[in-house]
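In line with agreed milestones, work has continued on tokenised descriptions of protein folds. One protein thus recorded appears below exactly as we store it:

>
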Amino acid sequence: MTSVAAIRKPKTKRVPDFVREHFALEVRKVIEERFDGNQSRAARALDCSQPHISGILSGEKGPGLNQLMAMRQLTGRSIDSLLGLPPTPGDELVHRLLETVQQNATAQLMITEAAAKAAEVRALEARAEERSRKKAKLKDGDE
């Protein structure tokens, strides 16, 4: 029979100090800029507890996946940049592609709105023209 002492959790790699320090700076910036320095509000947005935020800021704790994903969503930056790592090859291309897609979606929305307004104007013009014809018929009928 295996003793409880013999069963251990598999060791996980410790997050390098420079990564924890860089992420702590990024979190500190977000807390100041977006949450007016309120760690509790930031913790809710980052899907963790306030003590966990405090641990990240002090360098005792590294980021978890939830915090990385939330920071990525809050800042719009890549996880690599949030961790102070060099960009992964292709990241810039993906970022530019996403920007282009967003710009195209915005342009398409603007075109759709403009087309809807143009159709509305055409309908109003058609009604006005119809009224003018009716008035002209009435006028012709009075003479």
